[in-house]
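Budget justification aside, the reviewers requested a transparent look at the raw inputs and outputs of the sequence design task funded under Objective 1. We therefore reproduce one unedited record. The lines immediately below are the structure tokens for a 340-residue chain.
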């Protein structure tokens, strides 16, 4: 089979899965808007969006709570999935994820500090602190992983990330107990988009769009990086530049995700593997596919959390953990020889 035909089939397969993913995302988003503690018909949900009547209670519920919540799910799922794809490609580590690498925990610790010491903080201040915390955690993780004669390996990076994640998690708990943050921090760290507001989403949306666009622009370079740093350098790629921009994207997208929903995990771990199995190993396809399927996974998990124990809600982080932990154990078992 000649190369042009293989390339054409790859593009066709990518287009097919992207179209299917987008259709499913629209359908699940519609269900997310219509169903919840108070179920409404699809026609009511549609009318609330296109023919809003402030006198109708159902319309106010949909426009004020459910639509921004669904938008937050899409934004967070897309962001974390793209982060996972970039990290897995640039580090050649199939277990890379912003949660496992300690990045989310660093952002969480920074927000806990904001809650304790900056009670009158603005949303922009919180966003800046979250990104700075993510950056500090990332730097510590890479530094710890690079110690020793063997230097940094994918396995050492994962182990260092898990250790740093536990460390910052303990710091956050200490801040919570010491300054009596209690239920506010506990509910937020469980992961939930119930409190998403249009004003807050409008502030993080430009950062989200910037991160996604840069990630798409980096996707050809990430494909080359996935062959190995030595090979990428031999092909003329400026690996340090690519790693630098990739790190910035991951920090920004992880930071805004932690602000919006809390430190949910496993989206960035699971979704790139699903995308890779569907569209192949080219990150020009994996990154956008991860964004769509990450959004689909998050909206679906949030919807399940609302429906399985009505009228009470199961936090998004709990639902994703139930899905993600078995998958993580499967990946570790699959790669057990690399850890020996």
């Amino acid at each position: 089979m000649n190369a042009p035909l293989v390339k054409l089939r790859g593009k066709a397969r990518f287009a097919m899965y992207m179209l299917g993913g987008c259709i499913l995302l629209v359908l699940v988003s519609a269900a997310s808007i219509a169903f919840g503690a108070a179920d409404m018909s699809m026609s009511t949900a549609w009318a609330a969006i296109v023919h809003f009547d402030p006198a109708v209670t159902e319309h106010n519920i949909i426009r004020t709570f459910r639509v921004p919540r669904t938008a937050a799910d899409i934004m967070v799922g897309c962001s974390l999935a793209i982060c996972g794809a970039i990290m897995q490609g640039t580090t050649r580590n199939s277990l890379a994820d912003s949660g496992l690498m300690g990045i989310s925990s660093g952002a969480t610790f920074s927000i806990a500090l904001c809650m304790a010491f900056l009670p009158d903080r603005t949303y922009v201040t919180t966003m800046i602190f979250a990104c700075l915390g993510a950056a500090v955690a990332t730097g510590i993780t890479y530094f710890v992983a690079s110690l020793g004669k063997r230097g940094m390996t994918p396995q050492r990076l994962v182990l260092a990330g898990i250790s740093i994640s536990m460390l910052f998690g303990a710091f956050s708990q200490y801040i919570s107990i010491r300054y009596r943050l209690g239920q506010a921090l506990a509910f937020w760290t469980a992961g939930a988009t119930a409190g998403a507001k249009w004003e807050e989403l409008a502030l993080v949306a430009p950062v989200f769009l910037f991160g996604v666009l840069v990630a798409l622009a980096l996707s050809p370079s990430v494909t080359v990086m996935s062959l190995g740093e030595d090979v990428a350098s031999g092909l003329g790629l400026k690996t340090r530049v690519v790693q630098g921009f990739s790190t910035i994207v991951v920090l920004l997208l992880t930071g805004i995700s932690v602000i919006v929903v809390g430190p949910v995990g496993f989206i960035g771990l699971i979704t790139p593997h699903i995308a890779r199995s569907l569209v192949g190993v080219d990150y020009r396809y994996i990154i956008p596919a991860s964004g769509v399927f990450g959004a689909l996974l998050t909206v679906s998990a949030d919807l399940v959390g609302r429906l399985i124990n009505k009228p009470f809600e199961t936090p998004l982080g709990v639902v994703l953990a139930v899905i993600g932990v078995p998958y993580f154990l499967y990946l570790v078992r699959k790669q057990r020889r690399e850890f020996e």
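The CA atoms of residues 269 and 328 lie 8 Å apart. The mean pLDDT is 84. Computational costs for records of this kind are itemized in the attached budget.
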